[in-house]
Write a structure and sequence with these properties.
The protein has 146 residues and is of the alpha/beta class. 27% of the residues lie in helices and 29% in strands. The longest helix has 15 residues, at 46-60. The protein is globular. 14% of the residues are buried. The structure holds 2-acetamido-2-deoxy-beta-D-glucopyranose (5 copies). The site of one 2-acetamido-2-deoxy-beta-D-glucopyranose has 4 residues, from strand 7.
Length: 146
């Protein structure tokens, strides 16, 4: 089992001319061995959130094993004149992407999305605010036909 930080996904490019690019072997190792992906505080811009979900979808469809993706997000509520109320557009878009991922049927794996209870364990020292949410996406590979 290996844990794969979302921060390094953009490095999956295989181009020997580019410094720090991955080798074909390393990419296969990631595809074959990844069981967890952790992403923290990466959903605050709609275009980047779209990119994140496209990447997750693509990765999971290449994985050999089922994979659990944990994503933390702070729902940064703010007053907007448009809604005349507090809202968080980035959070709304994140939820939209989660729902879309769960509904996708066109790949070889299926996705289940759930929000984990807010009292999940705290192992590091940080200020736990009410707006902090932890989401779990389970990616199941289709049963292989043996
Ligand atoms: C990756 O998995 C495939 C399919 O099981 C296997 O054929 C291949 O040898 C594996 N490669 C590595 C580097 O683990
Ligand atoms: C990936 O898994 C294979 C066996 O499934 C193992 O031999 C190999 O060492 C693992 N690679 C890494 C980088 O964990
Ligand atoms: C609203 O936005 C401002 C400016 O970005 C920020 O300083 C403030 O903390 C936000 N309020 C909340 C409740 O997040
Ligand atoms: C304002 O937004 C909050 C948080 O989303 C919601 O609970 C509340 O019902 C909204 N109030 C109005 C008047 O829409
Ligand atoms: C993946 O998850 C599904 C549903 O939980 C399960 O039926 C299947 O056995 C799992 N596959 C592997 C390879 O663990």
């Amino acid at each position: 089992m290996s844990v794969f930080s979302i921060l390094s996904i953009r490095l999956l490019f295989v181009d020997a001319d580019v410094e720090f690019s991955w080798t074909e072997e390393e990419v296969v190792e990631v595809y074959n061995n990844t069981s967890f992906i952790i992403a923290s505080d990466v959903c605050y811009d709609d275009d980047l959130t779209d990119g994140l979900f496209r990447t997750l979808y693509r990765l999971c469809n290449n994985f050999l094993h089922n994979c659990t993706i944990l994503i933390s997000i702070e729902k940064r509520l703010n007053f907007t004149l448009r809604h005349l109320n507090v809202s968080c557009k980035a959070y709304d878009h994140f939820c939209h992407c989660l729902a879309q991922l769960q509904d996708r049927m066109d790949g070889k794996c299926s996705f289940r999305v759930e929000q984990l209870p807010s009292n999940f364990p705290q192992f590091l020292s940080y200020e736990r605010i009410e707006q902090l949410e932890l989401w779990k996406v389970s990616c199941d590979q289709a049963q292989s036909e043996f």
